[in-house]
Write a structure and sequence with these properties.
Layout lengths: L1 H10 L11 E3 L4 E2 H8 L4 E3 H8 L11 H10 L4 E3 L32 E5 L2 E3 L3 H12 L5 E4 L11 E2 L6 H20 L5 E9 L2 H9 L6 E5 L3 H4 L13 E10 L2 H14 L3 E4 L2 E8 L2 E7 L5 E6 L2 E3 L5 H7 L7 E10 L14 E4 L6 E8 L6 E7 L15 H14 L8 E11 L3 E3 L4 E3 L5 H16 L6 H5 L14
Parallel strand pairs: 3-4, 5-15, 6-7, 6-16, 7-12, 9-18
Antiparallel strand pairs: 1-2, 8-11, 9-11, 10-11, 13-14, 14-15, 17-20, 17-21, 18-19, 19-20, 22-23
Helix pairs in contact: 5-9, 5-12, 6-12
The structure holds flavin-adenine dinucleotide (FAD).
Length: 492
C-alpha cells in the first residue's frame, strides 16, 4: 500500500500534490517532510550530507533503495541531490557480533515460553548410535528421552558388517556386534544374513596386505581362475583386472530400518520415550546440568534439564558439540550409493552374491563395493571417495556422473549381466570422519566413520556400562576425545 502511494507520487513529481508524510527511507523511518526541512532553501545537497543530517541511507540497506528515490523525488522540487553513498560492508549480509571473534559466546535462543522437563537422560540423534544408547539406557532403568529429527547415515547405508579388523580391539567390538545382531534377529526379524566379503587383488601391494589379514580373520585366498566356482557362476570370464580375491567368512547384513526399530522398541518397553520429528535446537551446560531446547512435532519448544546428555547427532554432531565448548575436529563426508531392480540370486551355490570389493584408487574413488540382498535379490552398492575432504558436507540431493560411471564400469566388469539391470535408485548419505569419539564424560557418541552400522550397538552397551560405573575394557577409554582413538589402518 505504502509503496503504491510512493511510486504514484514519484511518477507525478509535482510538489503541490505530494504527501510529505510519506516515508522515503524505510530502514531508518525518514519522511519526505524531514528531508525537505533539512534541505531548507538550498538548491543542491550531497548524499553524504543528507545522510549525516537525516540518517537517510544509514540503515541495513545502506541507501540502496532510498538514495535512488530521493534523487528522483527532489528533482520535482528543483533540488539536485549530488554524489552517491560510500559503500559500506557488510551491506545487506547479516553478520552477528561475536561471529568473527575467536572466543565463542553462546547464542541466546529466543522462543515462546518453554515448558521445562527434568530428565534422567537425553539422547540427541536417533540413528544406530543413538537408538542403541536409548535401548541400553532404558534397560539400565534410566528412562531416557530419544530426540530425533529426519534420517541420517543409519538409514542411508548399505548395512554390512565384518569381524575382520587388523586392530584386535576393533575385531573384538565387531565380533560382539555380530552376536548382538544375531540376538536382535531372534527377537524380531531384521533380515539378518551371514555373508562373505570378497576383496579383489589388483596389484602386489594389495595381495600382500590382504594375505597378511588372514592372520586376524577367517579368510582364504582364491585365484582368478576359480572366481566362477568361488564367487559367482556368472563372474566375467574375460575380466583381467584381478589376479586373486580374499574371501572372508562370518560377515553379515541386516536391514537398517528394521534394526533401529527393534532397538527403539526395546527402549520404549523398558521405560524410554521417543520424540520423533523433534529437533534439538540448542544445548547449553551450566555446572553439571545440560539444558536442551527441543522443538517438538507439535511445534512447541520444550526445555529438557538433565545431567546425562549424549550427542549422537551424526553429521550434525560437531556443531552441537561446539555449543558446549567442545571442538571435535569431525567432518561429514558425502558417500554415494545405489540399488538395482530385483535379480535372481547370483552367488555361490545359488546364495545371494557376497559383498564384492574393488580397492583400486581409480577415477576419484578408493573403493567400489556392493552385495545382493537376500530378501529381494537387489544389488546394493557404494563407491568411496578417494579424498574425503573433497566431499565434505556436499549436497546430498544429487549423485555425480563420475559415481554412476564407475559403478557401471566396475559392476559390469564383474558380472556382465549387470549391464542389463535397471538402477532403481541412487542416493547419498554422510559418514563422519576422521575418527570415532565415544566419551561418556563429554557426552559424545559420534564420528562412527563408515563403520557405524556394524559397530555401534556394542559400543553403546559399553557406554552405558561406563556411565553406571561398571568395568569396561581398557580399549573403550581409547575412544575418548583425549584418547588415541581406535583407527583401522589396514582396510578403511
Ligand atoms: C552410503 C553409505 C554406506 C554406508 N555403509 C555402511 C556399511 O555397510 N556398514 C557400516 O557399518 N556403516 C556404513 N556406513 C556408515 C554408517 O551409516 C554410519 O557410520 C552410521 O549410520 C552413523 O550412525 P549415527 O547414529 O552416528 O549417525 P546418524 O545415522 O546420522 O544419526 C544421527 C541422527 O540425528 C539426527 N539429527 C541431526 N540433527 C538433529 C537435530 N538437530 N535434532 C534431532 N535430530 C537430529 C539425524 O537426522 C539422524 O537421524 C555407510 C554410510 C553411508 C552414507
Amino acid at each position: 500500500m505504502f509503496n503504491v502511494v510512493l511510486s504514484t507520487h514519484l511518477l507525478n513529481t509535482n510538489p503541490e500534490k505530494s504527501d510529505n508524510q510519506v516515508y522515503i527511507c524505510h530502514c531508518e523511518d525518514v519522511k519526505v517532510d524531514e528531508i525537505l526541512k533539512a534541505i531548507g532553501d538550498r538548491k543542491f545537497i550531497s548524499v553524504d550530507e543528507l545522510k549525516h543530517i537525516t540518517r537517510l541511507g544509514m540503515g541495513p540497506c545502506r541507501g540502496k533503495r532510498c538514495i535512488l528515490r530521493i534523487k528522483q523525488l527532489m528533482r520535482g522540487y528543483g533540488i539536485e541531490v549530488t554524489g552517491d553513498a560510500t559503500p559500506r560492508g557488510p551491506m545487506a549480509n547479516q553478520i552477528n557480533m561475536g561471529e568473527l571473534h575467536s572466543k565463542k559466546v553462546h547464542e541466546h535462543i529466543i522462543t515462546p515460553e518453554r515448558k521445562v522437563i527434568k530428565a534422567n537422560a537425553v539422547v540427541a540423534g536417533g540413528g544406530i548410535a543413538g537408538s542403541s544408547l536409548f535401548r541400553y539406557l532404558a534397560e539400565a532403568g534410566m528412562k531416557p528421552f530419544l530426540v530425533n529429527d529426519e534420517y541420517g547415515g543409519s538409514w542411508r547405508n548399505i548395512a554390512a558388517g565384518r569381524p575382520a579388523f587388523s586392530l584386535p580391539a576393533l575385531a573384538e567390538i565387531a565380533a560382539q556386534n555380530l552376536q548382538l545382531f544375531k540376538e536382535l534377529h531372534a527377537i524380531s526379524d531384521i533380515d539378518f544374513t551371514l555373508i562373505r566379503y570378497v576383496n579383489f587383488v589388483h596389484d602386489e601391494a594389495t595381495y600382500k596386505s590382504l594375505d597378511a589379514s588372514k592372520a586376524w580373520s577367517d579368510a582364504y585366498m582364491v585365484e582368478a581362475k576359480d572366481f566362477r566356482k568361488e564367487i559367482s557362476p556368472e563372474f566375467n570370464l574375460h575380466c583381467k583386472t584381478y589376479s586373486h580375491a580374499l574371501i572372508t567368512n562370518n560377515c553379515w547384513h541386516a536391514t537398517p530400518g528394521k534394526t533401529i526399530d527393534v532397538l527403539r522398541k526395546i527402549g520404549t518397553q523398558n521405560g524410554g520415550t521417543i520424540l520423533e520429528k523433534a529437533k534439538v535446537i540448542d544445548v547449553e551446560k551450566t555446572g553439571k546440568e545440560y539444558r536442551v531446547i527441543v522443538l517438538n512435532r507439535q511445534g512447541e519448544y520444550v526445555e529438557y534439564h538433565t545431567e546425562v546428555f549424549i550427542n549422537a547427532l551424526g553429521a550434525k554432531a560437531a556443531n552441537f558439540a561446539q555449543k558446549v565448548g567442545i571442538e571435535t575436529g569431525l567432518f561429514p563426508v558425502k558417500h554415494q550409493a545405489f540399488i538395482t531392480r530385483r535379480m535372481p540370486l547370483l552367488g555361490k551355490n545359488g546364495a545371494p552374491l557376497d559383498m564384492l570389493i574393488d580397492r583400486r584408487k581409480y577415477r576419484g574413488f578408493s573403493a567400489v563395493y556392493g552385495q545382493q540382498l537376500a530378501e529381494t535379490g537387489q544389488i546394493i552398492g557404494c563407491a568411496s571417495p578417494a579424498i574425503d575432504p573433497l566431499e565434505t558436507d556436499k549436497n546430498l540431493k544429487t549423485n555425480s556422473q563420475d559415481f554412476m560411471e564407475i559403478i557401471s564400469e566396475v559392476f559390469s566388469d564383474w558380472i556382465p549381466k549387470f549391464s542389463g539391470v535397471g538402477l532403481q535408485a541412487l542416493w547419498s548419505g554422510y559418514y563422519v570422519e576422521p575418527r570415532y569419539i565415544v566419551d561418556p564424560e563429554l557426552g559424545l557418541f559420534i564420528g562412527m566413520r563408515g563403520h557405524g552400522f556394524m559397530l555401534s550397538q556394542y559400543i553403546a552397551k559399553l557406554y552405558v556400562d561406563a556411565l553406571k560405573g561398571k568395568a569396561v575394557p581398557d580399549y573403550f577409554h581409547h575412544l575418548k576425545l583425549s584418547g588415541p582413538g581406535l583407527s583401522e589402518m589396514a582396510f578403511k
